[in-house]
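Pinned message: reference record for Phosphatase
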Amino acid sequence: MDRRRFISSVVAGIAGPFAGVACVAAKGGTAPARGYGPLRPVRDLRDGKVRLHLPDGFRYRSFSVAGDRYTDGSTVPGRHDGMAAFAGPKGSAVLIRNHEVNGAVGAFGDKTRAYDPMAGGGTSTIQVTRHGEVIRSAPSLNGTMMNCSGGPMAWRAWISCEETVNGPDVAADDNARLTRKHGYLFEVPVTRPATARPIRSAGRFPHESAAFDPSSGAVYLTEDNFSFPSGFYRYLPPKHPILAGRLLDGGRLQMLAVAGTERADLSKGQEPGATYGTAWVDIDDPDPDFTGRPAYDEAVQAVGRQGRKKGAAIFARLEGAVHHHGTVYLVSTQGGATAPGERAPDGFGDGRGQVWAYETWSGRLKLVYESPRSTVLDLPDNVTVSRHGTLVLCEDGDGDNYLRGLTRTGEIFDFCRLQPIPGDEGAEFAGSTFGPGGYTLYVNLQAKQGMSIAIWGPWERGPF
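Predicted structure (C-alpha cells):
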C-alpha cells in the first residue's frame, strides 16, 4: 500500500468517540474482571527460576540479560525500559528496546557512533522468535541518556525519548563531563542503526512516551517530571512523517490546555468519566540553551513553564502513551486522590494512577480510569494495547508489581505478578508490547539485572 492510501485508510477506519470505553471504575472501584484466572508461580524456560506468576497455560522465557553479550560481541547494558515490536522475517519479531541509563558513565557499543560518548543510555535492536530465542542483537543508538520510553512509528521506526535535560549547561551531578545537551527525541529505524540526530524542535524536557497519529502526522508526547507538574504535548512536523519516511526536525511544539480553564489541574481526583474540551498553546522556545548553568530543578521546568504561562493543563507524571483507532491513551502515574488510610507517593501527585483518553480528531479528553486504591492499581507506567483494545499497564508501585489489564468496558484485572527479588525491591515491569499477530507479549524487567521476557499462552481465553 502506498503512503497516501495508507493515510486515507487510517482516517476512514477511525471509530466513534471513545468507542467501547466506559469509565465504570473511577472512584469506588468495581469487582475486578475475570481476566485469565488466578496467578501461579511459573518457571522461566531459560534457567528454571521463578520470576513471574501467570494464569494457567501461560509460559515465558527471559533473554538479553544485562551483562550478556549481543550477537555482535558487545555487552548488553542495563536499565531495560520502553520497547516496541515490529514484524521480522519468518514470523520473528524485531524488538527495539530502550536503556534508561543516567550519568556520564560512557557510551556502550561503538563510541565512534555515539551522540555523546560520555552518556550511557540508548537502544538495542534484537530479532527474536515468538518464544524469546535470540536470533541476532546489537546496539542501535548510543550516547544518549535516560532513554525511558518512546513509541513505534508507522514507517517502521522507534522514537526513543530522553527523560532528562542534563548537559554541560546544567549544574547537576557530573554534567560537566557531558559533551552534548540532552532531553530530546531520537529516531531508530528497524533495519539500520540510528543516525543519532536529535529532533530538537520536539522539545528539550523530560520526555517519556511518543504516540503517532497517522491521520494528522502529529506525534503526541508525555512528560514525566517527577517533582513538578507535567504536561501533554504534540509535535507537528514540517511534513507528514509517512510521506517523508522519517520524523523531520523544524516543526512546532504545542502543549494541551483545557478549553475555558487556565492551568486546569488534572492531577487531582476526578469525577467518573470526566470529559474536557481542549485547546493547544504554542511553546515559543522548545529547545532552551541555559546560561549560568542553572540547577537541574530549574532547567527541567523550562519548557513546561512556557506552556503553563499560556494556560496549559497540569498532570501528575505522565508516562506511558499509545495510539489506538484515533485515540491516544495516556497514563498519569500519580494522578488522582489519595485513598483513605493510604499515604501519598513521593513526588508530584497524590494518587495511585489515572488513565486518560485523548480523541485526536475531536480534541476531547476523557478520564477512562482512576485507581481507587493501591491494591487495585498502583502507579501505572508504560502501556500498550492488545488487538482487541484491552490496555496492558506496567506497574511501578511500592509493593508487589503487576501487569494489569484494563478492558474496553473499564474493568481491571491482574495478568502477571513479578516474583519479589531479594535485595532489589525497586524491580518493575516496563516496555510491554505485543509481537506480530498478538501471539507473544514481550515485556522488560527493569532491575539490578535487567532482562527482556517473552510471554505466550491461551490469549483467546480472555480479553487480550
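Pinned by admin. Summary line: Confidence is low (pLDDT under 50) at residues 1-31.
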